[in-house]
Amino acid sequence: MKNRNNFLFYIIILLKNTYYCYNFFLIFTIKPCYAIMVRKRVEKMKNTLNKKRYLCILLCALLIIALSVAGYIWFSMPRIHFTQNPITLEVKETYSAKAFIKKIDHGSLQDVHVETNIDTTKLGNHQITYTIDGHTFTLDYIVKDSKPPVVVAQDQKISIGDKVAPEDFIQKIDDATKTTARFAKAYSFTKLGKQTVQIIVEDEGKNQTTVKAVANILKKDTQPPVFTGILDMTIQKGEKPDFKKGVEAIDDRDGKINFTINKNNFDAKQPGRYSITYQAIDNAGNKTEINRTIIVQEKTSGKIIYLTIDDGPSANTLKVLEILDRYHVKATFFVTAQCPSYLGYIKTAYQKGHAIGLHTYSHDYGALYASESAYFKDLQNISDVVKQQTGLTPNIIRFPGGSSNTVSSNVPGLMTRLAKAVQERGYQYYDWNSSSGDGNSALPSASLIQEATSYGGASPLMMLTHDHPGSQASVEALPAIIEYYQSLGYTFKTVDSSVSGFHHGINN
């Protein structure tokens, strides 16, 4: 028992000494070492923190410098300010791109370059690009159509049951964009008479204009168009004639209409006789075709004679036409209505390719030169006769007695006024600079030939001859006159309104 207690006592003493030794070792060995380690770590941390602080300060300084530089650059660079963005522009209008610049910072207007032009031809959104000192700015613009179409309507004659489009009632549309036309409602054109229709015209901007027109519904159109101004023509080799000049196609319903010319077989480089075909078709499908004879001759010396024949038709007209055919000569007939039974010869001459001009209906000097109105009444009467025979409304005339006549002096200044008035109405008048002298029907043919052939060498010649009802001398003299001028190399041509000159001095 005692031994056991001693053992425990020693154990306790040993543990206590161990504790004291541990404390001694901790105080004098471990703690000083630990303190040194802690101090070193703290110093290291302080150094690290100092380095980071310095780095942070440096970065902040650099950032401030960078922001200062950027700010300087930003606030000192050119800048364009616009009046508004986007802007709205009207289609097809013209604008200046620089007109939309309100102000410019650090620059002037002349420094601005417009990179993209304004395009107002297309509706929608677009963009203008400007540059100044290498800097780019953009302005958005919207092209709109805000103006309604300006529409001119026209009344129409239509055949009952025909299909009619709203465009048929439109004469003219003025708008910046494409337009479409439609009827305001469904119309029926199945009853004869007049009917008012409404047409709505709308553009791409959805702007609308409504107009009214009258549809005159008539019986089915069976009347074909009528050609005017188609005369046979003689040209020289290599000449390029205008086959449309003076030619019109007129329809009783459609008015003046387009026509086509088939000249596939025509060769101006090869002398010969050719036929070209004129064709016109009206809206109802009625068709007219007329052939026109074109004679191509070898080039001549350039001397020209216009053979004109006044006062017909008469009993001698067919003989005159036969002679002209024999010599392949075309003449110009200034016709009258003195011999009503022979008026059909006007058509015959026209069909043979001769030119038809207006002379007088009555050939009564006292009556037709009584006043301006009397003259134009007479002129209209003979014009109606010619149109009835040929479908042609001539615009070439010859005053009875010529423009130099003194018969009209009973009305002072009448010829001066008439010469001006006929031209204002679209006519051209022709006198002459050579003659056979057959105005005196008592002269024999030999005298006529002598007189007519006394102008050889002059050019151009406007030769006056007559188709007298009772005189054979003019007919007998005609072959010799033609042969003489053909032998001198003259080219016989017909008169049209493009021929200039040949005006006498007016004596009243």
Topology (SSEs and partners):
Elements: H1 2-76, E1 79-82, E2 87-90, E3 101-105, E4 113-114, E5 124-132, E6 135-144, E7 150-153, E8 156-159, E9 170-174, E10 179-183, E11 193-203, E12 208-218, E13 226-228, E14 233-236, E15 248-251, E16 255-257, E17 260-262, E18 272-281, E19 287-297, E20 304-310, H2 317-326, E21 332-335, H3 344-351, E22 355-358, H4 365-368, H5 372-390, E23 396-397, H6 414-424, E24 428-429, E25 434-435, H7 445-452, E26 461-466, H8 473-487, E27 491-493
Parallel strand pairs: 2-6, 8-12, 14-19, 20-21, 20-26, 20-27, 21-22, 23-24, 25-26
Antiparallel strand pairs: 1-3, 4-5, 5-6, 7-9, 10-11, 11-12, 13-15, 15-16, 17-18, 18-19
Helix pairs in contact: 7-8
Structure characterization notes:
The chain is an alpha/beta fold and 508 residues long. It contains 8 helices and 27 strands. Helix 7 links the parallel strand 25 and strand 26. The longest helix is centred in the N-terminal third of the chain and has 75 residues.
